[in-house]
Specification:
The chain is an alpha/beta fold and 333 residues long. It is 34% helix and 11% strand. Strand 7 and strand 8 form a beta hairpin. The C terminus is likely disordered.
C-alpha cells in the first residue's frame, strides 16, 4: 500500500502526481489498480514545510537569522544587480523585497526554462551566484544547527510524523499511515486494492523541507541549496535475525522490510508512537529492536552524527541508525 501526501501548494501536488505516474504509468497498471489517494492538510496544520506563517515564535526566530545585510559580499551583489530591483527597495538584502532567496529561485527557474526567460547577464555572474547560494543557505538553515528551539518549531513536527509512522509500522498498529489512507471509524481493514500495510510513502514538499530535515539531523554539512528534483528518502529496515538468534546482525537487505510491516491489528493503536523513549517499557523496546533507519539525500546515504556512538547504529555501517538505542534503560531500570 502506498501513502501519498502533498502540501497545499499546487507545485507540490504536481510533483507528487508526476512522480507517481512516472513510477506507475497507466500502461503498467492492472485493471484493478485503484485510483491513488493524495492526502492534504489545512495550511494551518501543515508540517511538510517550516510553517512560519502559522507559528509566531518561529517567524520571530526566522527573522532573527535573516539579518545578514551588511557585508562586502552584499556590496558585491548590489554592484551587480541592485539597479534592477524595484523602486523603494533598491538594496539587495537577505530580507529585502524580493528576498535574496527569491532572487535565487528566479535565477534558477530561468536557467531551467531556457533562454527566452533569461534575466540580464549580471544575475548569472558566477561569483554572485555562489554568494547568493551560500548566504541564502545560511539564512534559511543555520538556525537548525544552532538552536534547539528552531529545530523543534521548524521541522520537529514533520520529523515526529515520520517517527510515528516508522514506530507504527514496527508495532503493527496502523499508525504507519494506514488509518489515514484506509481507516474507517478506527477499523483498519484493507486498502482498496486489498493491501494491509504501508510499504512506500511519498510526500510532495519543498527545498526548505529537505534541507531543514538534514540540517536538524546534522547531516547537511553546510551544503549548497537543494537543486531542483532533490529528494530525501527515509528508509526503515528490519533485521529478521533479531529475536530469533543471538548472532550479530548483518546488514539488512531492502527486501526484508521497507517502510512497513504486514503485521497489522484490526484497530488503530497509539501504544508507542508518540511516547518518549525513556518512558518505553522493556516489552515495548523489544518490539523496536532490530529496526534500522537510513537517510539518503539525492540517493547518497547520509551519516547522522548522533548515530555514530556505540549502540546507535548497525555494526559496521554508521549510516544505519537504530530506531531505538540498544543501550537505553527502560523506565523501571
Amino acid at each position: 500500500m502506498i501513502y501519498l501526501r502533498a502540501t497545499p501548494m499546487q507545485r507540490a501536488l504536481d510533483s507528487v502526481q508526476q512522480s507517481f505516474v512516472g513510477m506507475y504509468p497507466l500502461s503498467a497498471r492492472t485493471a484493478s489498480f485503484p485510483p491513488p489517494t493524495i492526502i492534504t492538510r489545512a495550511l494551518a496544520d501543515e508540517t511538510l514545510f517550516p510553517n512560519e506563517h502559522n507559528c509566531r515564535r518561529f517567524s520571530q526566530l526566522s527573522r532573527a537569522f535573516a539579518q545578514r545585510n551588511e557585508s562586502k559580499e552584499m556590496d558585491y551583489l548590489n554592484s551587480l544587480i541592485s539597479k534592477w530591483m524595484p523602486e523603494g527597495s533598491r538594496r539587495v538584502a537577505v530580507d529585502s523585497h524580493p528576498r535574496l532567496s527569491g532572487i535565487m529561485d528566479t535565477v534558477n527557474s530561468t536557467l531551467a526554462h531556457g533562454p527566452k526567460t533569461r534575466l540580464p547577464s549580471a544575475f548569472y555572474d558566477a561569483k554572485g551566484r555562489e554568494i547568493i547560494d551560500r548566504i541564502g543557505t545560511e539564512e534559511w538553515f543555520s538556525g537548525y544547527m544552532e538552536s534547539e528551539e528552531y529545530r523543534k518549531l521548524g521541522i520537529g513536527a514533520l520529523v515526529g510524523d515520520i517517527v510515528t509512522r516508522m514506530v507504527g509500522s514496527a508495532e503493527g498498529s496502523g499508525n504507519d499511515g494506514l488509518l489515514e489512507v484506509a481507516g474507517v471509524d478506527g477499523d483498519l481493514g484493507k486498502g482498496r486494492g486489498g493491501e494491509n500495510g504501508i510499504k512506500f510513502a511519498m510526500s510532495g514538499c519543498h527545498d526548505t523541507t529537505l534541507a531543514g530535515i538534514l540540517s536538524s539531523l546534522g547531516a547537511f554539512g553546510g551544503g549548497n541549496w537543494p537543486p531542483y528534483t532533490s529528494h530525501v528518502a527515509v528508509e526503515l529496515f528490519k533485521d529478521e535475525s533479531i529475536g530469533v538468534q543471538d548472532s550479530k546482525p548483518t546488514k539488512p537487505a531492502p527486501r526484508q522490510s521497507f517502510l512497513g510491516s504486514s503485521r497489522k491489528s484490526t484497530k488503530a493503536s497509539s501504544i508507542m508512537t508518540r511516547k518518549p523513549m525513556q518512558d518505553l517499557s522493556e516489552e515495548e523496546r523489544a518490539k523496536l529492536q532490530g529496526y534500522y533507519v537510513r537517510v539518503r539525500y539525492n540517493d547518497h546515504p547520509m551519516t547522522v552524527p548522533g548515530c555514530r556512538l556505540p549502540g546507535k547504529h548497525l555494526e559496521g555501517d554508521e549510516s544505519f541508525c537504530t530506531l531505538v538505542r540498544s543501550d537505553m534503560p527502560a523506565n523501571n531500570e
